[in-house]
Amino acid sequence: MPDTVVEINLSHIRSNAAAIAARYPMYDCLIGVVKGDAYGHGYAVVQAMRDGGVGMFAVSSVDEAHDFRRYSDAPLLCLQPVSLDRLDEAAELSLTLPVGDMTYLRALIARAHPYPFAIHLQVDAGFNRLGFKDACEIEQALALLRSSPYRVEGIYQHFATAGVFDPYYDRQAARFSELTEGIDLHAIPLVHLGSGVALLAHDKPDAATATRMGLILYGYNITPTSYGGGVKDRLRDLRDRYYQKKYRLSATYRDVELVLHPAMRMYTRILQLKNVTAGEHIGYNAAYTAPKDMRIAVLPVGYCNGIGHEDHGRMVQIGDNLYPVVGEIGMNMLCVKVDDSVMPDDRVTLLGGRITLGMFARAAGMGLAEALLLIGKNNPRVYVN
Ligand SMILES: *Cc1c(COP(=O)(O)O)cnc(C)c1O
Predict the structure, then answer these.
(1) Long-range pairs, 233-237, Cβ under 8 A, ≥24
(2) Span 72-129, pLDDT tens digits
(3) Using one digit for the tens of pLDDT, what is the confidence trace for 131-184?
């Protein structure tokens, strides 16, 4: 067993997908976003997602599609335009192609590739990243594709904001409708607008027949939560309701009851336990000075393991207790302040148990998906059922 491992629970992945499928039957197709090596979980999770009810998958690039295909023959959408030099590869991978730009589309059609590619049109309703931002172009693109060997299977956009008491969500949804007014959306099987948080926090947009999701499949219910009961929170609540009325915002759901189980945990072991006397320094730059006598555990984890070097109150769990990191995080070691209950052979949990992904990511100054990706990609993974 390596010193440090990331453990991925496949039955959690399966039950997360099944719970989402059961709660959102109004979508014909759930699209599992598995870019970034399935958010660091590895493409070995794809079958579990499929077993739970995910019908289609999305990766970022042809390279990711190669990795994906080692594990699954499921329908696969590429989220980034595929270089025309790689169309043969894309055909071999049965990759569904995105198209969000006329120049690219004309060149794609001019290639007249013999493989009858399925196409998803990308609409830019406010993100200003990929996609068409002009209604006429979308009509033209459809017309061009209709007389091409390719087939339009989907159309989608991506929300720039979660739209929780933020009028920009509604503006993007409305903009998508405007941009697609001139075409028959019913003729396109897969219309997908948003990601996990849009799914949880909002009603299904009328036109949508499918939805994409990443984080929630891996076990994180990212529904916005209600405020607590304090005075400040009641004021926040009033402010939200005022905004909702003033800007006629669509309904937003909080505290959505959807039981999801995080699939990823990260463990390590203790290299050495040692006593430090008050006034002694610990680690690089002698950055930490022991305020009193203490016992520390040295762990074989550092930024080399993808945890970053920042420490905004990072904790690890040993037994049932949480212990704080002391001193700077090195390339492959760090120290935690422990108590007498800790034994040399104790297992140390860096993520999982009492350490939520939110705590982990905050302590590392990372986003949630970023944290999963970095630790998943930089440690040996073991899969359990
Ligand atoms: C990453 C991504 C998603 C998934 O987002 P989550 O917030 O993890 O649900 C959906 N759509 C696109 C286009 C993405 O790039």
Answers:
(1) none
(2) 999 999 999 999 999 999 999 999 999 999 999 999 999 999 999 999 999 999 999 9
(3) 999 999 999 999 999 999 999 999 999 999 887 777 889 999 999 999 999 999
Those residues with Cβ within 8 angstroms of residue 340's Cβ, 6 or more apart along the chain or in another chain: 295
- Positive or negative, the CA dihedral 173, 175, 179, 182 is positive
Question: Considering only CA atoms, which residue is closest to atom 6 of ligand 1?
Answer: 214
Please count the other Cβ atoms lying within 10 Å of the Cβ belonging to residue 38: 30
Kindly list the protein residues whose Cβ atom lies closer than 6 A to any atom of ligand 1. Answer: 33, 35, 79, 158, 195-197, 212-215, 369
| Spatial separation of the C-alpha atoms in residues 346 and 295, rounded to whole Å | 15
What string of DSSP letters covers 127-140? --SSSB--HHHHHH
β-sheet with 5-9: strand ranges across: 272-276, 294-299, 334-338, 321-326, 315-318, 348-351, 264-268, 5-9, 381-384
pTM of the model: 0.94
Evaluate whether 30 touches 17 at the Cβ level (below 8 Å): yes
195 CA → ligand 1 middle, Å: 5
Q: What is the Å distance from ligand 1's center to 58 Cα?
A: 9
Q: Say if CB 98 and CB 190 are below 8 A apart.
A: no
Contact 52, 14 (CB under 8 A): yes
Please give the backbone phi and psi of residue 210, each rounded to the nearest 5 degrees, phi first.
-140, 170
Tell me how far the alpha carbon of residue 308 lies from the centroid of ligand 1, in angstroms. 23
CA-nearest residue for atom 10, ligand 1, is: 195
